[in-house]
Amino acid sequence: MANVVVVGAQWGDEGKGKIVDWLSEQADIVVRFQGGHNAGHTLVIDGVTYKLSLLPSGIVRGGKLSVIGNGVVVDPHALCDEIERLRSQGVKVTPAELKLADNAALILPLHRELDGFRENANSGTKIGTTKRGIGPAYEDKVGRRAIRVRDLAEPDALPPKVERLLAHHNALRRGLGLAEVEADSLLRLLNEIAPKVLPFMDRVWDTLDHARREGRRILFEGAQGALLDIDHGTYPYVTSSNTVAGQAATGSGLGPGAVGYVLGIVKAYTTRVGEGPFPSELHDETGRQIGERGREFGTVTGRARRCGWFDAVLVRQTVKTSGISGIALTKLDILDGFETIKVCTGYRLDGVLIDYLPASESAQKRLEPVYETISGWSGSTAGARSWADLPAEAIKYVRRIEELIGAPVALLSTSPERDDTILVKNPFEA
Ligand code: GDP
Ligand code: IMO
Ligand code: MG
Known about the structure:
The chain has helices spanning 16-23, 76-88, 109-120, 134-142, 158-176, 183-197, 204-213, 247-250, 285-293, 312-321, 361-366, 392-405; strands at 4-8, 29-32, 41-45, 48-52, 65-68, 73-74, 98-101, 105-106, 201-202, 218-221, 261-267, 270-272, 306-308, 310-311, 326-330, 340-349, 352-354, 368-375, 409-413, 421-423. It is α/β, with parallel strands linked by helices. The strands form five sheets. It has a ten-stranded mixed β-sheet with strand order 9-7-5-2-10-1-11-15-19-20, with helices on both faces. Strands 14, 16, 17 and 18 form a four-stranded mixed β-sheet that branches. The chain has a two-stranded antiparallel sheet with strand order 3-4. Helix 2 (76-88) runs parallel beside helix 6 and helix 3 crosses helix 4. It has twelve helices and 20 strands. 30% of the residues lie in helices and 20% in strands. It has three domains: 4-101 and 200-261, 3-Layer(aba) Sandwich (Adenylosuccinate Synthetase, Chain A, domain 1), CATH 3.40.440.10; 109-197, Adenylosuccinate Synthetase, subunit A, domain 2 (Orthogonal Bundle); 265-429, Adenylosuccinate Synthetase, Chain A, domain 3 (Alpha-Beta Complex), CATH 3.90.170. The longest helix has 19 residues, at 158-176. The mean pLDDT is 97. 6-O-phosphoryl inosine monophosphate (IMO) binds at residues 8, 11-13, 38-41, 127-130, 132, 134-135, 223-225, 228, 239-240, 273-274.
C-alpha cells in the first residue's frame, strides 16, 4: 500500500485542495511539507466552501491527523487565525488533530514587511509574490538565524536569538530606509503567541515514523506547483521552496522510501498568478473567457490569474522532475463548448524547435508556443462522475494529454464539488 504525494504540476492552483480532500478519505494522516500561507486550497463539500492556506486539507474531514512538517514556514498569527476561521465553520481543530513540527521556521511580521517592501519598490525585480513573507522567512532559515517553533518553548534562550536575527534585519532595514525593529517588541510578540501555538508542537519526524511502521497511510499535500519550484521553476519568478515531490521526504522528516505514488495535479489548461514567463498565455477573448468560466481569481490575494492553453512541454518536464506516477486532471469542464482547443506541444526559440523549458530567463521570455489544434466537444463534462458520461471528443483530449506528457490519468475532476470526481486508478492501490 503506497503513501501518496500530491504536487502541483504547473504554476499552482491546479486543484490540489479538492483532490487531497477527496483522497483523504483513504488516508490516516495528511502532511504539508513546504510553502506556507501563500497557498490557497479551496474545498467544496455539499455546497459549503472551505479555504485553507496553512492547514492540511485533511483537517476538514475529521478523524484524520493533520501535520505541518518542518519544511513549511509558519506564521503563528496566520495559523491561529486560520484555526479560528475553520472552527467557526464547525471544523474541529485541537492538538489531537493537528501537529506542528518543532523544527519548522517561523514567519514574523518583519518578513511580511520586507516582502511587501521589495514588491512595492521600483527596482525592476517584482516577482508578484503573495506578500506573506515567505521568501524572507526561507532566507533566514537558510541563513541559520530563523526563530523556530521550538524556540517559543524556551523564553530564556530567545533574547540572543532575536538579537542575532535583528542584527541582520536592522542592517538591511537601515539601508532600505525602514525603521529598525526593537528586540523588546519582537520578544513580547513571540512570548504572547507562544501559548497559542505550543499545544500543537510535536516531534513530527518521530510521529510520522511511528505511523509508518504501524502501516498507517500518509498523504502528502504539496503547495504551489513544480514551475514555481526554487530550482526547477521559472527562476527568479518562483516561490522560495522546493515544490517538487522529492521535498515531501525532506519537508516532513521521512526518508525518500516513504514517498510512494506521486500524483501530479494538472489543470486542463494553464494559469499563473504573478509575474514571469508564460509561453501559452492568451491575451485575447479566449483567455478572458477561460478566466471567467474557470473563476480564475486567487484564493489568497484575489488577483486575477493569467490564463492560457494547456502547455504539454511544461507538464512533461514536471512528470520528470517530480517523478510523477499519474495525474489528476482537473477543470476539464471549463473547456466545455469550445469549438477547438489548442495544446502547446513545443516551443520555437530563435527559430529553432525545442521540446523543453530552457533554464535561461531570457530564453524563457523569448519562447513562442507551437500548437496542435484539437476538436472541442459540444456536450457537457460538468459534474460527470463516470468515464461513460464524457463526450467522445473530451476523452480524445484526455488521451492526447496523457500521450504528450507521458503519464496516465488516475483521477479526473469535473467540478469543484468533492464527489464530482472520476476514479480511473486508485493511487493508494497502485
Ligand atoms: P489549489 O491551490 O491547487 O488547491 O487550487 P485552488 O483551490 O487555488 O484553485 C482551484 C479552483 O478550482 C478552486 O476554486 C476549486 O474549487 C476549483 N476546482 C477544482 N477542481 C475543479 C474542477 O474540476 N472543475 C471546476 N470547475 N472547478 C474546480
Ligand atoms: P497554491 O498552493 C499560485 C506564486 C506567487 C508569485 C510566486 C512567489 O494555492 O497552488 P511567494 O509569496 O510564494 O513568495 O510568491 O509564487 N504563488 C502561487 N501561485 N498558487 C499558489 O499556491 C502560490 N503560492 C505562491 O503568485 O508568483
Ligand atoms: Mg491555490
